[in-house]
Design brief:
The complex is a heterodimer of chains A (222) and B (268). With 222 residues, chain A is an all-alpha fold. Chain A has eight helices and no strands. Chain A has one domain. In chain A, helix 7 packs antiparallel against helix 8. The longest helix of chain A has 39 residues. With 268 residues, chain B is of the alpha+beta class. Chain B has a domain of 135 residues: Histidine kinase-like ATPase, C-terminal domain (Heat Shock Protein 90, 2-Layer Sandwich), CATH 3.30.565.10. Chain B has eight helices and five strands. Chain B has a five-stranded mixed beta sheet with strand order 1-2-3-5-4. In chain B, helix 1 runs antiparallel to helix 2, helix 1 crosses helix 5 and helix 5 packs antiparallel against helix 7. The longest helix of chain B has 83 residues. The radius of gyration of chain B is 31 Å and the shape is elongated. Classes of the chains: A mainly alpha (222), B alpha+beta (268).
Chain lengths: 222, 268
């Protein structure tokens, strides 16, 4: 029997929001959130199932693939929502570079049967840097801009806080695995991590809602 | 296997929490800064829209004034000339020589009327002012007024004239028209002096009449003083400082001082 955590429900909530408002996501880069959320929910449920049945290797294999796809999808969203040609180019080159790095790591360094913590760390750093790109543009935009009405702002803060919180964990994970982490610490990290996932997916749901609101506003204007 | 000491792990967790607080703080800064920037941008947009509105108003007023002048000119000048020609061409009596003289005079008068009409039609062109520039526009007005005999206008120019920018010149010309109108309609003035001083850093425009004058504070405080208030607010719009000096029986002098560089920045 699958036991779902609160963060699983947060992910499902975002998926349901994206399906309900799918029409408003059309013709926007945020349409990619639908397959992304479908993949995430499916991966989490499958991972849960595999965990219960102690099929840890398959579980790691599954997340080794989905996390790489996740990062590429986030980079794509930043690429589409940043205006500066220079920053856009950096993100554009970062996408294939990340895939290559992850492939090299999973094939030759950490192996496909171990979780790719090194490239998770690289992916996290990329995300944090891209969030700063977005914030920099939001700072310097010469037109009046209401950030809470920008879907990308919500996605950015969701990703920013999630990956900031996850950064030290990803950084120290190989060390902790080697030296056996204390149960209490592991529990604390899990609490932080789970809450950050909930926060991240609530932000994604708000982004989807804002997207549909903007669409409605522009319809009313026209 | 040895377990990691809890203090080390606690430190890592503390760092994570610090990271999160820092992240939340950054998000807050971005939000607050953006809100302030939005307010500033909206204020700027408002100012720009007010500026454009005032410019448009000044432009319309100039056109209105031009039409009034043209109407007066047609009535007082061209109308008179053509009436005189009509009388001259009256076939009643006279020798051949007299008739030839009359024909000659009439031809000259018609030619003058055509010239006057050509000048007037030029001033009906919307781009006329932009084409002329401030100095030439004022000189044309001086010439026109002096010809009409309603007021004696004198113009003094100091320094080498330079352009102040179309919008700035438009506002200055409208101020000049307003002051001239005031002198004509309310001041009962005979002379009107225009001083234009083109310095390296500043441009000074002084418009003075020898009319009946008034108490500045009283005038600015009353409903009738809207013309003077307009002069002050329009001067401020282009970054100029307007000073109005007047006393009953002592005429009126309006001085405008404009920092050439500031005016360019304001327009931008």
């Amino acid at each position: 029997m699958l036991t779902l955590s609160l963060y699983n429900y947060a992910e499902m909530l975002a998926l349901i929001a994206s399906i309900i408002f799918y029409k408003n996501l059309f013709k926007t880069p945020f349409l990619i959130l639908i397959p992304y959320l479908l993949m995430t929910v499916a991966a989490e449920l499958t991972g849960n199932y595999l965990g219960i049945h102690h099929r840890y290797k398959e579980n790691v294999n599954l997340f080794n693939i989905t996390t790489v796809i996740e990062f590429v999808i986030f980079y794509f969203l930043f690429y589409k929502n940043i205006n500066s040609a220079v920053l856009k180019n950096i993100i554009l080159y970062a996408m294939p570079l990340y895939v290559v790095l992850a492939a090299v790591n999973q094939l030759f360094i950490q192996g496909f049967n171990n979780f790719h913590t090194y490239t998770m760390l690289v992916g996290t750093v990329f995300i944090i840097v891209f969030v700063f790109f977005y914030f920099y543009e939001a700072f310097s935009d010469k037109e009046p801009l209401s950030l809470p009405k920008e879907p990308m702002f919500w996605i950015s803060i969701g990703l920013f806080l999630f990956y900031l919180g996850d950064f030290t964990y990803n950084l120290m994970q190989p060390y902790f695995i080697k030296n056996h982490m204390q149960k209490e610490s592991f529990h604390l990290f899990h609490i932080i991590n789970n809450n950050l996932i909930i926060f991240e997916y609530i932000c994604f749901s708000i982004a989807i809602f804002v997207c549909s609101n903007n669409r409605l506003a522009s319809k009313l204007q026209s | 296997m040895q377990q990691q000491p809890f203090s080390f792990e606690a430190a890592i967790i503390a760092i994570t929490i610090v990271f999160l607080i820092l992240g939340a703080f950054i998000v807050m800064i971005v939000l607050v800064y953006r809100k302030r920037r939005n307010l500033h941008l909206l204020e700027k947009l408002n100012l720009q829209s007010n500026y454009k509105h005032e410019l448009l108003k000044a432009q319309l007023e100039i056109q209105e004034q031009t039409l009034t002048n043209i109407g007066r000119e047609i009535h007082d000048n061209i109308g008179q000339v053509l009436s005189f020609v009509k009388l001259s061409l009256n076939p009643a009596g006279g020798s051949l020589e007299q008739l030839q003289q009359k024909m000659h005079d009439s031809r000259e008068l018609v030619a003058k009327a055509i010239n006057d009409l050509r000048d007037l039609s030029k001033s009906l062109n919307v781009q006329y002012f932009a084409h002329l520039g401030l100095l030439k526009a004022i000189e044309t007005e001086v010439e026109r007024m002096n010809k009409s005999g309603l007021l004696n206008l004198n113009i003094n120019i100091k320094g080498t004239p330079y352009e102040l920018g179309e919008q700035c010149e438009l506002v200055l010309f409208r101020i000049f028209q307003e002051a001239l109108n005031n002198s004509l309609k309310h001041a009962d003035a005979r002379n009107f002096t225009i001083n234009l001083q083109f310095n390296t850093e500043t441009f000074n425009l002084t418009l003075a009449d020898d009319g009946q004058g008034f108490t500045v504070a009283d005038k600015l405080g009353s409903f009738n003083g809207s013309g003077l208030k307009n002069i002050e607010s329009r001067a401020a719009l282009i970054g100029a400082v307007a000073t109005i000096n007047s006393m009953p029986g002592k005429g009126c002098a309006i001085s405008l001082q404009l920092n050439h560089h500031i005016s360019q920045t304001n327009v931008n």
